[in-house]
Amino acid sequence: MIDIAKAVFGGLMLFIGHDQEWLFALGLGLLVGLKLTFLLPVESALWMILLVVAAGGAIGVLPFLIYQESNYVVTGFLFGGFFLSEYGNIVSRAIIGTGLAGSTWLVFFVGAVIGAIALGWAKTWGMMFATAMVGAFLVAGLFSGLTPIAETLIAAGLFVVGCITQAVIMRIEKQAEK
Fold first, then answer.
1. In this structure, is the dihedral angle defined by the CA atoms of residues 41, 4, 128 and 162, taken in order, positive or negative?
2. Which of 2, 22, 73, 115 would suit a FRET pair with 64, their CA atoms being 20 to 30 Å apart?
3. Cβ–Cβ < 8 Å for 13, 138
């Protein structure tokens, strides 16, 4: 069930993510909340797990609903932290043959700060880049049994296709406004 949700969310973000910033913020919040459920005791009730996931989603989408400009920084924070902690090991193993060293929290925090600064600065183009990247890795992650290099190459190809698709859509939308 989670794989189906990741596939749908990944596909949407890959191709139309820059237009659906609220959905990207909500989805990232839910993914971060899901990632944080490992902090709960093993015998936790389902309602507690769902509460943590829902809180992550709320943290992701509330800044967008309150003040849209803050969404770039908050979404960048969630994107950077989630992306580096989730996929940094895959890319690191593919490039240098070993995973990232150090604490998971340190990796999350470094990625979060970089993501917040980058999306806060780049805004729409940064959002396009981030949504295509998350979408590409979520979709590529569905191909089980691949080597880290193969998964990274598939994700890279999907990322390029997603960025080109979103750039074309953005250009068409701007021309339609004129």
1. positive
2. 2
3. yes
Residue 102 region, left (φ>0) first, then alpha (ψ -120 to 50), else beta?
left
Cα 92 to chain centroid, rounded: 18
Contacts of 162 by beta carbon, 8 Å cutoff, 6+ apart = 13, 14, 15, 17, 131, 132, 135, 136
pLDDT tens-place string over residues 11-32: 999 898 878 888 888 888 888 8
Radius of gyration of the chain (CA): 16
Range of the domain at 42: 2-177
Q: Which residues 6+ apart lie within 8 Å of 77 measured at CB?
A: 112, 113, 115, 116
The pTM score is: 0.80
Domain tally, the chain:
1
E strands of the chain, at which residues?
none
CA distance 136 to 161: 9
Residue 7: which residues within 8 A CB-CB, separation 6 or more?
Answer: 138, 139, 142
Exposure letters 45-71 (e unless 16+ CB within 10 A, then b): eeeeeeebbeebbebbbbbbeeeeeeb
Cα–Cα distance between 20 and 1 in angstroms, integer? 23
